Amino acid sequence: MAEGTLGSRACVVTAGGVGGFVTARGDGARVSKFPHLPDRKGGTGRAVERPPARGRRVLTSKVGMDGIPVAKLAALAHDENLATEIGSTPVNLSPDEQRAMLRQMQTIRRFEERASSDYHAGKIYGVVHCYIGEEAVAVGVCAALQQGDQIISTHRGHGHCIAKGADLKRMMAELYGRQTGYCKGKGGSMHIADFEIGMLGANGIVAGGISIVTGAGLAAQMDGKGRIAVSFFGDGASNAGPFHECLNIAAAWKLPMVYVCENNMYAAQTAAAETHAMPDVAGRAAGYGIPGIVVDGNDVFAVTQAAARAVARARTGEGPTLIECKTYRWRAHTERIGQPDFRTEEEIEDWKKKDPIVRLLGQLKAQGAMTDADWQAMDGEVLADIEAAVAYAAASPFPKPEHALEDMYAA
Amino acid sequence: MAEGTLGSRACVVTAGGVGGFVTARGDGARVSKFPHLPDRKGGTGRAVERPPARGRRVLTSKVGMDGIPVAKLAALAHDENLATEIGSTPVNLSPDEQRAMLRQMQTIRRFEERASSDYHAGKIYGVVHCYIGEEAVAVGVCAALQQGDQIISTHRGHGHCIAKGADLKRMMAELYGRQTGYCKGKGGSMHIADFEIGMLGANGIVAGGISIVTGAGLAAQMDGKGRIAVSFFGDGASNAGPFHECLNIAAAWKLPMVYVCENNMYAAQTAAAETHAMPDVAGRAAGYGIPGIVVDGNDVFAVTQAAARAVARARTGEGPTLIECKTYRWRAHTERIGQPDFRTEEEIEDWKKKDPIVRLLGQLKAQGAMTDADWQAMDGEVLADIEAAVAYAAASPFPKPEHALEDMYAA
Amino acid sequence: MRELTYAQAGLEAIAEEMRKDPTIFYMSTDPALSLMQEFGAKRVRPTPIAEGALTGIAIGAAGSGYRPIMDWRQVTFSFVAMDQIVNQAAKIHYMFGGQRTFPVLYRANVGGGTRLAAQHCQCPYSMFMNLSGLKLFLPSTPRDLKGLLKSAIRDNNPVISFESNRLLTMKGPVPDGDYTIALGEADIKREGSDVTVVAIAWLVHEALAAAALLEGEGISVEVVDPRTLVPLDAKTIRSSVRKTGRLLIADEAGPTAGFSAEVAALVTEDPATFATLTAPVKRVCALNVPIPYSPVLEDHVFPDRKRIAAGIREVVEATRGADGGVRGRREA
Amino acid sequence: MRELTYAQAGLEAIAEEMRKDPTIFYMSTDPALSLMQEFGAKRVRPTPIAEGALTGIAIGAAGSGYRPIMDWRQVTFSFVAMDQIVNQAAKIHYMFGGQRTFPVLYRANVGGGTRLAAQHCQCPYSMFMNLSGLKLFLPSTPRDLKGLLKSAIRDNNPVISFESNRLLTMKGPVPDGDYTIALGEADIKREGSDVTVVAIAWLVHEALAAAALLEGEGISVEVVDPRTLVPLDAKTIRSSVRKTGRLLIADEAGPTAGFSAEVAALVTEDPATFATLTAPVKRVCALNVPIPYSPVLEDHVFPDRKRIAAGIREVVEATRGADGGVRGRREA
Ligand SMILES: Cc1ncc(C[n+]2csc(CCOP(=O)(O)OP(=O)(O)O)c2C)c(N)n1
Ligand SMILES: Cc1ncc(C[n+]2csc(CCOP(=O)(O)OP(=O)(O)O)c2C)c(N)n1
Ligand SMILES: [Mg+2]
Ligand SMILES: [Mg+2]
């Protein structure tokens, strides 16, 4: 880790072997190695103990991501635009827009609360992966996009769908396995998609979507209409081949791409600290010659500012950016019961205190843009939307068995 | 690119968007973007013109790799051992050892000159990829290894075989498709291997061997006997998924690995500048928290010093290192005729002037460790060895057709 | 005999072998807790999600004296590792002239019924059958799984253990103590004289159910479970067909160039067996589509006891005598 | 008619389509020079060696209005892209309920004869046949290749064009002007009455040579070239067998669960065709090994006209009457 000054401009760079979070201002760089890493003893009550990992140092440093500056830039010294500070304040967002973001976040949460309970009630099949706790990432990134921009999602896809503007009714109908669902019941939670709005699908293969959306980015570049494409993926996916192949191709071809790593510090039951030697995935950007940004993924304004800069870069032909959003999932990896979860109750509770929705609500209240009554009304509307979606799904017919043979080949 | 000082120790780091070569001393960092990149006009006479590449900037900066310090360390600020200077002088090498290195390099060259002419004479089948011009890499790296260490090679494997100590007779017999060859005629040039000496095979799939040898590294770690493993691969392979997956795993698990990228600036007909946004593959090491070293791959002493340090790290449990050797192949991608080669005659000639054998010979002469007569005698011996290998191969029987059914399953 | 689930029998086989042989180690993105607890994180390794590299790492470790087990979990995740499977694992022994042995065991869950849709439900073992250099099995009972896994772990070649999602929680008798089941040996799960049903995995149980049903209709069904896909026990299959004169193949995979096609070919290319065939060969397989999510759709895609029974009736019908009795092959 | 090589016919198809349709672009680690020169580096892209990503990039671009062509070159390089082929390309249209079309063409060279050994010589098309969602073809002549490539480029589904290494330099007549050959239509390359030989790619030519040879022995051979593997023209194959009563399948790939097994099954599961079969089905395929390097070994592994001829004699022998004459199917 080296820190220096290039001319009068603040500059911070990460170097091999260290990394960590670094403020963009160069004042008092804080280096943390895997903050929030649980000690892997204990367990959440529902989880069984996992043997300690391979004798590798388990760092429990609690240097957090609160406070300001909340966004940290790595390896951005060369890019003046990006190296300016990203803060936890709304930039170019009207109160209405900010409220809309809050509402979207709450919609994701309420949608998934319902999906989870309907899953446990046997009305939704297979598996459901909840995004609860990570809502600021999808909403923050999608707020920086325009119609015509395309995104791709992961197995944990409801949040991305809703943030990109998908119809709750058709989403819920898909989860219910109905003919009126987005995929006519052929996809379910892991394959929810709405190509009309540029949501190229949840994907059941970890890192499986990164290449596809990079192809959408290539198409956008060839079109020359200033459209861009965004790949969402997890910390787990960042260790898979397609991450590397696509970042390299996008960098070499200057594709209008934004790669958003949702680092919730776990891939299913495996902690990122066991599979990454470095805490920051964004530190890999430098190797491809592109900016890597680390941002507090529970701060929707910071996320959207980071995204806006990356989107601007992409739209103006400067090429891809890697944004790493540090966040956390509140629920187990999937809603299936009986799966171990090695995270501690304490860690989960800590993160619940950083609830991105509560935070945004607090900011809106502080601005005077929202009262408690407004919030209650908003939540009531959101709940009504979810109810309507459920009612629609429940009233929709199942596909007919013979529909299984449809949609095989396009005409 | 930022440069600074951490305490009293020289430190240099590469940052996103720039990179390039950086001296380990921090004095006068030189940044070059794709040195030696041809302008892709012209052609070598045997080659047809290739349309200029995708309108992307084609940089022809001629900042070279000559002069001292010839080795450049990137992103090593945290590692005192590695950040010390690597020079073009023999360290811990007796004159005999130095002469042995020269002889090995000349053996590779003479072996391939013969393999090429026998290929064109129809005595060797399929395809032959020549390593001529890159001999210092294999010999320099393998000189830093011990028996019991394992290496894996690429489609361009003769040099690695010879440097690891393979028997020329069995090598040539394999190329001749004979029963006495290393693989009983089942492999040929692209699958030459000698597991007894820890040469785990040439591999016909680009990046295909990286994972396998990483498994050998894992075995070495589990054995706990201080053995290590080395992966050779090209600049082309550095863009493939296994490069990323393996470097990450090796870093996370601290495997005793050395990853050696032979950056000859082309993958078949495609220039690295078209497929890499950054000139240095070694700059990717930082993202995994491991050292990345750029070294003049035509300087056998520099290569072997870099390798020795990486090997020491691996042997003492400090984990993997990525070494990038800048080098050049003199011949076309393969010996097959009719394949285009977009490199200019000028570029090829430039590199021939940096002949690693001539350079080492000069150094030995300067030391007084070698005379012209010695050299002639040595070359004569090498040629005699090759002749003997050819005679052995030519006198060996072809396998019987029914041998095709042998070696299918191990007992 | 004590009863274990299919999943338990698999874990027991692995734990028993790991206790005896310190060169065995296990890798998976999320390995079973019981294995991690017993053997610790050095021998049971949670890995990054990089199945491609890990599949190759297993090969390299195998060539260096270890006996790695790489658990891909859902078979659909193995496709990211296909280069290492096809170009490396399957070829490495042969291509290098047998210089080293590569004892690797890969595990993969296959099959539907889980409502996990196209990217988690698939039965692609036939794709691997067309390769040369791997051994493959797909057991239908806890007992078979345990015995085959033990043989595979001790085998000096790369072996893939395909394990059925639908059977994971199914219980069955498992003998005490150490036993193995040899790769390449079919098991006749039920004897019969009118029709041979060759079935694998879950469909063995569906075939047995169909056989029980048809017993009441006077049709005697023999159920042959090959258990191992490569090498396939053509001898047992053919001799069963020579006895019954009729063949139905039941497979949870689609038919095209699949296991079912191979069995059909093995029988019809063998002159002695072909001569005894009294009815066309019948394949009862999944519909030729990716697996859909909605239960209505998924259940329609897969074959089951009903379709097997209907198929058996059809095969028998094709050779039913004018008097309505089932004709034996000799009368045909 | 003018003559072109197989390789030239392929390039001509692509160039002609690219001239007409600006949404077509081409990616390959080392694309053909003629294409780069004509269309420039935006439409004919030399890529990093990252076939996995590029296979997916093609899918994404296809879903965004383009018609990409991704040339894997040797089929063995496609295995690094298998996840994108199996889990994405083959499933994406169906899994998302047909929301978008994905018109991608993949090209892959298959087959031996090049002395390039196991990692460059393989005929794994059967692995892809077992999937649902792709179309596949493997032509035997320059004319067929050109016509099929044009159909494939215009098709709205992912299609794989398997192209034979052995035929690249083979010349054949190619009509002038624009023409297409529909996917899924077999071609009877030679008519005959005693035996049906279903052969693909290079083995069509070997089968024709065998047929010419056997004409002198009084055996009349019909050679059927399916050309397309998925969808496979079962109708033409079955009706040929119903005419001849005998079937031999010649494939450069190994037999197990392969194209040859599928053809055998298609014929023997069809009651009307099965009823006319007078001899066991015969498969003439590659030996079941990875492809070795040494010419002696490689040539031994692959089937050829001699093995096909021997196989035909065997099939005919199996049904030769006591008088030594070849029995027609009706007399059987
Ligand atoms: C190639 C592949 N391997 C394994 C899995 C099983 N799996 C599903 S989600 C998951 C963890 C993904 O972690 P991450 O990318 O961090 O995303 P997160 O679940 O944390 O959002 C795993 C291992 C899979 N779907 N695909
Ligand atoms: C997966 C794969 N894709 C493509 C090829 C064809 N191919 C063989 S060598 C080569 C270039 C390799 O370049 P590099 O890694 O730089 O090694 P070099 O030949 O320069 O030594 C290519 C594209 C292959 N063998 N494997
Ligand atoms: Mg995660
Ligand atoms: Mg190269």
Brief write-up:
The complex is a heterotetramer, with two copies of chain A (411 residues) and two copies of chain C (332 residues). Chain A is an alpha/beta fold and 411 residues long. Helix content of chain A is 37%, strand content 11%.
Strand residue content of chain A: 5-15%
Alpha-carbon distance between the termini of chain A? 57 Å
Helix-strand pattern of chain C: EHEHEHEHHEHEHEEEEHEEHEHHEHH
The fourth-level CATH homologous superfamily of chain A is: Thiamin diphosphate (ThDP)-binding fold, Pyr/PP domains
Helix-strand layout with pairing:
The complex is a heterotetramer, with 2 copies of chain A (411 residues) and 2 copies of chain C (332 residues).
Chain A: E1 2-6, E2 9-13, E3 72-74, H1 80-83, H2 95-120, H3 135-143, E4 150-152, H4 158-164, H5 168-175, H6 208-223, E5 229-234, H7 241-253, E6 257-263, E7 266-267, E8 270-271, H8 272-275, H9 285-288, E9 292-296, H10 300-315, E10 321-326, H11 345-352, H12 356-367, H13 372-395
Parallel strand pairs in A: 4-5, 5-6, 6-10, 9-10
Antiparallel strand pairs in A: 1-2, 3-9, 7-8
Chain C: E1 3-5, H1 6-20, E2 24-28, H2 33-43, E3 44-46, H3 51-63, E4 67-74, H4 82-89, H5 92-95, E5 105-110, H6 125-129, E6 135-137, H7 142-154, E7 159-164, E8 171-173, E9 187-190, E10 195-199, H8 202-215, E11 221-225, E12 228-230, H9 234-244, E13 247-250, H10 259-268, H11 271-274, E14 282-284, H12 295-301, H13 305-317
Parallel strand pairs in C: 2-3, 2-4, 4-5, 5-7, 6-7, 10-11, 10-13, 13-14
Antiparallel strand pairs in C: 1-8, 6-12, 9-11
Bound molecules: thiamine diphosphate (2 copies) and magnesium ion (2 copies).
